[in-house]
Amino acid sequence: MAQGAEPGASGQEGDPAAVTVPNFWDPRGGADRPTVTPNTIRFLASDDFPPFAFRDGTGRLTGFNIDLARAICEELDSACSLRIKSFDALVPALVREEGDAIIAGLARTEANTRTLLFSDPYLKLPGRFTVLQGKTLSVLPEDLAGKRISVEAGTVHEAFLRTYFADATIKTYPTATEARAALGTEEADVHFGDGLSLSFWLNGKTSGDCCEFVGGPWLEPGYFDRALTIAFRQDDALRQAAVNHALTRLQAKGIYAELYLRYFPVSFY
Q1: What is the SS3 assignment for 130?
Q2: What 8-state DSSP symbol labels residue 87?
Q3: What is the 8-class DSSP label of residue 52?
């Protein structure tokens, strides 16, 4: 099983003051700037994917993906533009050369990799355990034997629990909301779900400040493989290499961490 923050992440498990920022890049890589960098990068994105890309109260386009795209262009000294499309129209627009790169959480599927290039991952979506505030609990499989774990039915999170936490009592609920609520009613000792969604729940009003993350992020291959990347046309290795370099440099400079904490104040790592 794969548990814990990515190598190089900051923060210390068990320290409530620490904030963990994921690091997906080898610190030894990306030091040398590519010989040739693109003069322009025309990003394609959707605007209905908060907190990654959305319109704020004034109608201004903002979000983690949007600010990351701008930071990439600044790092490369490339002119940057952003064109908004519906999600389904992004790949056709890229193929028609209406843009150079898609930054919209496009899944890296077997079919897509035959026709597109992808950047290194810039965010992965782990599973996380949550418990009531102040409750001390080890969430290793052997320590949760006999404990009640709430989870949304029919999800990859349920499948993961049934594979690796078979000795626990797995309580399924029709929705994530009901599965989380089982903590407050003490129908469950611990809840397991999507780390990103849970981070917003913990930081929002509906949780009532009831709960907190426990243990580290779970990144088990085959269950939590989904990663956010940037897609390019297959003949555009130049922009792919340049963007990978920029992502590494943004991490090294602390700019990635600044953006991450701006949009994810309760880290899901």
Answers
A1: strand
A2: G
A3: T
